[in-house]
Amino acid sequence: MTQDSNLPPDALLDFVAEEESFGVANHDQTAALSMADRWQILIVDDEQDIHAVTAFALNNYIYMNRRLHFTSAFSEAEARAQLSASPNIALVLLDVVMATPDAGLKLVRFIREDLNNQQIQIILRTGQPGDVPEEQMVKRYSVNDYKLKTELTREKLFSAVTLALRSFQQMRDLADLNFRLCTANNQLAVFNAQLQGMVDARTGELQLQSQNLAEALQDKTNLLRIVAHDLRNYLTITKWSSDLAARAESAELSAKHLAKVAWAVDKQSELINKVVSLEAVGSGKQVLSCHSESLAEILKIAAETFEQRLKEKGLGLEVHWHCPEGVQVWVDRVIFSNSVINNVVSNAIKFSHDGDIIRIDVQHLPEGNVCISVRDQGIGIPDDVMQALFGFEVQTSRTGTKGERGTGFGMPIARLLLEKMDGTIAVQSKVMTKDSDDHGTEVRVIVMSARAS
Question: What pTM, to 2 d.p., does this model score?
Answer without folding.
Answer: 0.49
